[in-house]
Structures are given as structure tokens and as C-alpha cells.
Design a protein that fits this description.
Length: 186
Amino acid sequence: MFTRFLILSGLVWAGFFTYGLADLEQEPPSPLKPLVIPPTTTTTSTTIVYLDAHQALQDDIGKFDALDQLADNPYVNILALAIDAGWPTDIPTLETLSQVIHKESRGRMIVGPSSRGPGHEQWNGHDWGYVQINEIHTDYVEQLYGIPFAEAMSDPWKNLNFAWILYSGRENDGKCGWQPWSIPCE
């Protein structure tokens, strides 16, 4: 019995010397998951809301429930990315977003030339990504993401995130969020 105690003590001290005592002074990792809420105005500030583990799990469950209901949708993978980029998990909104994706790009990341590559052969010269964000938004996109418009809108997440900012900003102002894509609101 005493031999086991000595062996265990030796292993504990070996761990202290191997990994250092400094590791013991570090704070444990936070159980909170940060959620970035994009601004709905033309400022560059963002609000960070920390979710506890339960809230984060509920958000994930909502995402998976929505994606389960949309499993037959040909753009379900793009919709999953859209949810990660800020879009809500309600089915009617995601179905309309799917219509926009189909209408604008047929689910292809149609972009112009950037450091990511030469661009898509069907690029029209001024609209970018899954949801075809128009270059009229160049200043706002560059202010928001801090990188050139072409770089930002060539990134699928940023493309869908900006579409959410555009949509939700209009909705918050009492306007039709789908108007930029010529989709009527009911």
C-alpha cells in the first residue's frame, strides 16, 4: 500500500516538473460561447454577447432542427453556413433565402477576380457570391470587414453575413428585407 502511495506521489511531482507549476495558476476555460451580433447601422462596432453552455446548446438544437426540416433542400449546406453567419433558424426565412440563392447564383459562389482566384466565368462584373451582393455596397462592406470588397464578398461566410445585415437592417427599419433581391414581402 505504501509503495503505491510513493509511486502515485512520484507521478504527481513528475507532472509538476514536466508541465510546470505555472499551469496551475491559469484560470479554467470559460464555459461561455461568444456570439457576435453584427451591427444594423453603418457603424463598425459589434456587440459581443456571451452565451452560457445551455444557451449555446439551445442555439445549436434550433439550427439542427431547422436543417432537418430543410434536408431535401438542394442548398441545405449553404443554409447551414447562412445560419452560422447570423441568419435565423425560422423555416420561412430560410426557404426564402434558398429562393434568393437559387435565383441569384444557383448555389454557386459567383465572384469576380480577387486574391482568392481569377473569378467565376459567369461573373457579371458587379454582383458577388451566393446572394450576389452588388458593388454599390463597397464602402459599407469595406468599413464593416476591414478588407477590400472583393476579398470580403469572395468569402462565403462574409457574403451570407452581409446579406443578413442588409436584410435585417431593412426589416428593423420597417422595410421589406427581401427588396434588394426583388422578392416581395407579404
